[in-house]
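Worked Example 4.2. Consider the chain below.
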Amino acid sequence: MATSQKTTNRWLVFSSAWVIIFLVASIAIFSVFSEPMTTLHGWSSADYNLAYSLYTLIFAIVAILAGMITDKFGVKWLMYVGGLLFGLGWFLTGSVTTIPMLYLTFSLIAGSGAGMMYNSALVTAMRWFPDKGGKISGLLLSSAAIGPFILSPVAAIIIEQYGVLNAFRILGVVFTIGIWVVGWLLDSAPANYRPKGWTPPAADQQKSPVSTIDLNWKQMLKTPLFYLLFLTLVAASTAGTMMVSSASVIAQDQVGLTATIGAVIVSISTLSNFVGRLSFGVIYDKFGSYIALLINLLMTISALLMMTIATSMAFFIICIIILGFSFGGLLVVFPPLTSQSFGAKNFGMNYAIVFLGYSGGAFVGPRIASYFKETTGSFTTAYVSAAVLTAIGIALVGLILYINRRKAQH
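Applying the procedure from the previous section yields the following structure tokens:
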């Protein structure tokens, strides 16, 4: 272990994880393939989009197993196997002719590969930076916003030049090679790693202490704190994904924008998401985990309520920027908060379980938006519902702070 500590450059580990998350986050460009794939095969959009939902579910399930492997054996071979499966899933999707085949190649194969890599790469890199948990989480997850922003136009060009099926194949090869090129750099940090010259800060309920507790997943599931954090993440991510997934449609429906301008709104949302990820890394380190989370939730609820009266383009864009900013910061807060709350030793497995809250919210959120649009004719009820969910998240954080204060007094 001592040798690893001396010879491993932690910034190379960070760079490797950044590239892997950048590539795996390409799932967000799946919508770029929607129109050409449904037109080519005569599929319904609902059947095609279900592949994304199934992908998300399989991703979350596999990530739990990958987290356990990461904690016990390290992460490198997961990158090789995961990179192969992820790229193979994309490549084989270029040969599908039926919806069940799409679910097999993209949802199951590519989703399994992504589940092996995404959280495992994130956790491995963060273990090298106990001195800057929030900033590193923000920097790493900024790649998940940059990835779709860069790859969406690239995918559109490849589809136009070579056809949609060949685009899947080309990207599949690129993804596998890219992940393998950097995956070997993901060395695991020594147990209880401390950077040279850094001393862990004293425990403070508001700041982000390096936890001396090390719970395994079974012990974590016995704590009330887990369920409070889990439900907070479900509430916040349901609200966030509901809005982000429908940004273009909402822009066209509510403000009367064209489809082209609607696409620009999505780009604005993506950029503010990126800035939010970087900013909340700094906010986390400066003000502490729960203050950062409260700021995030308060921004979300404010923007949602503003959306109910957003009829001008300028005001609508302001709302979208705030929503994108806060939603981008949400997942930046939870990885270091999970490590702080339950310890670094079993961080991989524990965070994978906590992350199920986001996956659940991402699965349900877009459907709530569609439901209220279809039943009421507008998105206003969806905004109010999302705001109520966010308010529940704020109440849960308040309960956590109250419990922590009572413990500190005893």
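The radius of gyration is 21 Å. The domain at 2-183 is CATH 1.20.1250.20 (Growth Hormone; Chain: A;). Compare this with Example 4.1 before moving on.
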